[in-house]
Amino acid sequence: MDKRYFITQYERYENHYLLTLRARGDELAEPAHEAIEEIFLARGFKFPPRPARPIDLQEAKAPGKGGSIGTGLVIVLCGLLAQGLLKQYVHENIGIATLVVAIMVGFWVARKIWIRGLPESRRQEVFDQEKRDKAIENGASQLMLASAEGDMQRVRELLSFGVDANQRDHRGGTALMFAAKNGHEEVVSHLLAAGASSHLETDRGNTAADFAIKGGFAQLANRLQAAAASQNQG
Q: At CA 193, angle to CA 189 and CA 199, rounded to 5?
């Protein structure tokens, strides 16, 4: 199928939907991208470059793997307890409950031993992935993860596709907080320019400046405090 085919298919759609298609990056065929670009140009719509990796504009969440096996077991057990099913069974056969707990503890110990035996570089990768998975469990978005990692290219891509700079995770965290905590000044600058609010607080009352202080980035914290004051005045 050539570009003309995709133009006849796409020209009926609004810009937002076409932007969602373009966000798929390499997952979308080259003629389809060319058709979208031609439609945007004809409409005078300013469109962003193709992303290096697909962006999910529907969810605006990072694709996650879910929790660990141990976490999954805990969730299942809690669910059963809430329904009153496991409680009765444990009362009748406490040995099964003990076995389940032993399996969970054994899994945790075996994982710790496995990690300890890895080369240092690989061990760090595992730790970084665990932190990433934990952030995803807490509702971290693609923008938050990119900001935490200092991935400036990805941050630019996400913002250019209209991702909200003030997205909040389950604890009230924002991309600006993730960037500040890790001292990524360039990302902080780009987020502020995109409208990120530096005065927002987490559920525990921490701002982006607080995270910068905890990370040991005093100069960045001062800058964020000044930005918060300026935003409040505006």
A: 80
Structure tokens at 50: 């193709």
* pLDDT score of 52 more than 90: no
- Domain range summary for the chain, segments of one domain joined by +: 3-43, 69-128, 142-233
CA atoms of 185 and 219, how far apart (whole Å): 10
pLDDT tens digit string along 68-83?
Answer: 445 555 555 555 555 5
**Reduced to 3 states, what is the DSSP secondary structure of residue 34?**
helix
CATH for 142-233 is 1.25.40.20
Burial of 162 (0-12, 13-18, 19+ CB in 10 A): middle
Q: What is the pLDDT of residues 13-39, one digit of tens each?
A: 999 999 999 999 989 999 999 999 999
> Angle at CA 155, nearest 5°, toward 154 and 161?
90
Give me the DSSP letters along 36-84.
HHHHHHHHT---PPPPSS---TTT-S-------HHHHHHHHHHHHHHTT
Report, in this order, helix, strand and coil percent for the chain, each rounded to 5. 65, 0, 35
Distance of alpha carbon 43 from alpha carbon 32, whole angstroms: 17
**In angstroms, rounded to a whole number, what is the distance separating the alpha carbons of residues 27 and 5?**
18
For the chain, first and last CA: distance in Å? 51
Distance CA 72, CA 69 (A): 5
